[in-house]
Amino acid sequence: MIELRNFSKSYGSREILHGVSFTAPPCSVTALAGLNGAGKTTVLKAVCSIHYADGGSVSVNGIDAETDSVKNKAQTGFMSEHADFSLPFTVYELLHFHAAAVLAESPAKAQKDAVFFAAESCGLCDVFSQKVKDLSNGLKRRLSLACCLLKNPSVFVLDEPEAGLDPRQTADMRSLIAELSKTKTVLFSTHLISEIENLCSKIIILHNGTVAADGTKEALCAQTGSTRLEDAFLRITENGKGKV
């Protein structure tokens, strides 16, 4: 389980988030939604110990993300919206490179097994020999997810996993995330209301630096008097205080 308690974060003198509290339950998909600049990526990075709270706390499976960051990084996999694939590698070479880094204490066979497991799970075995720079955007997103899978984390934190994908690629990514959630905790940010409806059992909406809404699709619609989740989202985020 992921739990934030009164989380706050500033960049210099600018406060991005304050008093953010929510939980993301295990073996499920929780969506983090909000307008551009709402602080979604800030939360995701804190969950993965990429940076730390200025106030409050973040814990993942009972592990404090700041005081025990090494253990937390081992149990979380972060998929960035903008993965860096600048190295001149093939798909296999890149996965092997990452496996050697995240599984440095494991024997070579275990690293190789992890590469094939991640590649098979993400449908990449047929493109092992292709240069990463030549892949379609959809395959690059799959590759980014495969890199997360290498260490078999119990928690997946995905930043806009469907960004730039066409409808077919979006459906494939949705299937991958749904499969992961059978045994893993998944927290992901998205602007696509359709993906929230198709995937998520819980929705967190950030607005004006804090949690404006937290609940199921049905709860948010009831709270706003809406029949559609998109209308509920718009009503929550158009109000000056982020509340309805």
Reconstruct the topology from this structure.
Layout: E1 2-11, E2 14-24, E3 28-34, H1 40-47, E4 55-60, E5 63-64, H2 69-75, E6 76-79, H3 91-102, H4 108-121, H5 137-149, E7 155-159, H6 167-180, E8 185-189, H7 193-199, E9 202-207, E10 210-215, H8 217-224, H9 229-238
Parallel strand pairs: 3-8, 3-9, 6-7, 7-8
Antiparallel strand pairs: 1-2, 1-4, 4-5, 9-10
Helix pairs in contact: 3-4, 4-5, 8-9
Termini, distance in Å? 28 Å
Query: Any idea what the radius of gyration is?
Result: 18 Å
Number of helices in the DSSP assignment: 9
Helix content: 25-40%
Shape: globular
- Share in β-strands: 25-35%
For the largest sheet, list the strands in their spatial order. 6-7-8-3-9-10
Main beta sheet: 6 strands, mixed
* Helix and strand element order: EEEHEEHEHHHEHEHEEHH
The class by helix and strand makeup works out as alpha/beta
Low-pLDDT sequence parts: 240-244
Q: pLDDT average, as an integer?
A: 92
Number of strand elements: 10
